[in-house]
Amino acid sequence: MPRDLIAALDIGGTKIAGALVDGGGKLVARARRATPAQEAGEIVMREVTAVLEELSGSAQWSRVAAVGIGSAGPVDAGVGTVSPVNIPGWRDFPLVAGVRETVGDLPLALVGDGVAMTAAEHWQGAARGRTGALCMVVSTGVGGGLVLDGRLHPGPTGNAGHIGHISVDLDGDPCPCGARGCVERIASGPNIARRALEGGWRPGPDGDTSAAAVAASARAGDPVARASFERAAQALAAGIAATATLVEIEVAVIGGGVAGAGDVLFTPLRRALRDYATLSFVEGLEVVPAQMGTDAGLVGAAAAALPLL
Ligand SMILES: [Zn+2]
């Protein structure tokens, strides 16, 4: 029996997804549970174990050569612990030790979810074949990861590229992380919606005040809705330009729900990038939408474990 599969876990505040992933990035078995995010740490871990047991009960489990875990962060890959902001029962929680109780001593990689998404885009998606890339998830929060010298760059703790908490507004609003004027404080979906509401935008008859609803208004020409997306685009552009200037990326890949706004986000983003990415070596920087879709977390967790094979 060839050992050619990776067992992948994608752990977030809503769901715990698992899959067996082959060398081409195809998912050959799946399992999934809801995350009991408000419960004690051990109860959350029980659901992770249930997902792993479902996978290890499948006929293909004997082909598994390594395990890849992508988790909401922060994570600490060095010691194998996680402290996801939206799973309060997990603070410095020994996730790797818990997973090892089911998978034994298979080679194992742990990365943050932004790094996992980056690994997926670099392996199979919009950053494929690129030497330097910043991949971002713009959603409820803003996360990201880096490809440098043609390889995933998770950093020592598995969190490198966390662009959401770079400050782009020195005296800006306080961010839950403790800093001020972070990219996430301006560009996340909830903050786009909040700023639109503060500016006088009102939802339609359905009462939907999500960033997607603001995007629909922006597309229809509403000036306040447009301004909120333009401000978010500006914050993203400043963060991307800073990253490109520091480490010479050639492409920024943007995924997550807010990226679903399409041109409402990407047009002002590309325009703002010309204002901030001004030096000759970053002028050619491209901004493109992510390609990996809903399985990016699982494919990325598997991709993060590829170097272990
Ligand atoms: Zn912050």
From TrEMBL:
UniProt KW keywords: Kinase, Transferase
Organism: Streptomyces sparsogenes DSM 40356
Pfam family, one: ROK
Protein name listed in UniProt: Sugar kinase
SUPFAM superfamilies referenced in this protein's UniProt entry, alphabetically: Actin-like ATPase domain (SSF53067)
PROSITE patterns from the UniProt entry: ROK
InterPro entries tied to this protein: ATPase_NBD, ROK, ROK_cs
Record-stated family: Belongs to the ROK (NagC/XylR) family.
Record's keyword annotation contains S-adenosyl-L-methionine: no
Entry GO MF terms: kinase activity
